[in-house]
Amino acid sequence: MINLRTIEVPTPTDYLRGVGNESLGLPQNILFFRRTSKQVLQQESIKNRSHHRIVAVFNLETSAYIHLDHLEVELRPNEALVIPPHQFHHFSNLETTKLNWLFCTFELERPSYIEPLRNKVIPISEAAMQSLGEALNAYINERQTPHSTDEVQALVLTTLIRLKKAATDHSALYKIITDDIVSKVNRVLIETPNIELTIAVIADNFKLSESRMRTVFRDSAGVSLGKYILNYKIHTALSLLANTKLAVSEVADQAGFTSLQAFSRTFKEKTGLPPSHFRKKTNLI
């Protein structure tokens, strides 16, 4: 414990100027949940795609690969990953079917604050683990203790600050995985963004029959290849609509849809909003 009685505090030279001029903004609408099953982890990642929330993943047990847009990283125990809004992500190659991953999802007034953490695997420092544990306890007791909501927000922000410090100290970077079937499929999707890829085309690319391709992929990804491809396309569209000024027709083309009509219909079916409405809503956040 820090002994406040013995720390030398310098006298300010200017009593109107101090530190902390940057407006950080507190995390809002915070949720914690735990994933202990490989099946639930993989299938839920397909379902929850159309939000603008930040996802912080804390691996407490069981290594796995996480696929992020065009990258693949390995997340090991006592490591964290912060996923920005609309970034494609999926999990594969878990060491066992049982795991212990803690998730914290939230909104930030300035999502750019966590941009330095993009695509970085970060060691969870003792200090970050402590503030994370305190945030979780405050979250669980939020309805029983006065001011717990304030504590949750402050402690989640403290954890983010400590993750940023650890990322800087350790120069945490992604590393490419080359021998995973999900990674190989991702590269096919990346290299042919303007083409309507069918399972038959992808299977032929790997010199496999369609049935064998489906089986091999599901064994690794935990979801069907068809659902995975569609999820990838929708995430691509979400990111392009939120972060670029491309026309909706260009977004449809780059996301791999055969026509604007097909894109608009599928996008609304999966997200609940037409592409143009989604873009307007995102720009207001």
Features:
285 residues; alpha+beta; Jelly Rolls; Arc Repressor Mutant, subunit A; 2 domains; five-stranded antiparallel sheet; three-stranded antiparallel sheet; 8 strands; 17% strand; globular
**How would you write the strand order of the largest sheet?**
1-7-2-5-8
- Which regions have little confidence, pLDDT < 50, spanning 5+ residues? none
Number of distinct beta strands: 8
Q: End-to-end distance, in Å? A: 41 Å
Shape descriptor reads globular
Strand content: 15-25%
**Mean pLDDT reading:** 86
Instruction: Label the structural class.
Output: alpha+beta
- SSE topology string: EHEEEEEEEHHHHHHHHH
Instruction: Provide the helix percentage.
Output: 40-55%
Return Rg in Å: 21 Å
